[in-house]
Fold this protein.
Amino acid sequence: MTAPKHDGLILFAHGSRDSQWRQPFEAMLERLQKDSDQVCTLAFLECMEPSLAEAIDLFAMQGVQKITVVPVFLAVGSHVRKDLPMLLEQARQKHPALRIQSSTAIGEQPEIQAAIAQFALKAATT
């Protein structure tokens, strides 16, 4: 029997009514699950499941002690600036023993910006 994983990673995305919209996020999750020793899942702000609260509840039930939420947003708008902190505070109140942190939005990272610029350059030459 393997030991429980104590760290969790949540990719937090907006969500969509179009079920195909989630495919790239599922691909990211599969890669994370393959490459990470943490328990990993997706969570969505709206229109899709699980919600962030549901994902955090599940991790808490699994004995996860520390959760990192990674906003899979290209820019910081009101969802990342206002909604996410409110949701995280609600989760911290519900699960005071959990350590819950959030990274900045992925689009704020220089390596993501560079990868997008390289993709755009390659797209322009094909």
User: Anything to note?
Assistant: The mean pLDDT is 94. Residues 25 and 47 are 14 Å apart (CA to CA).
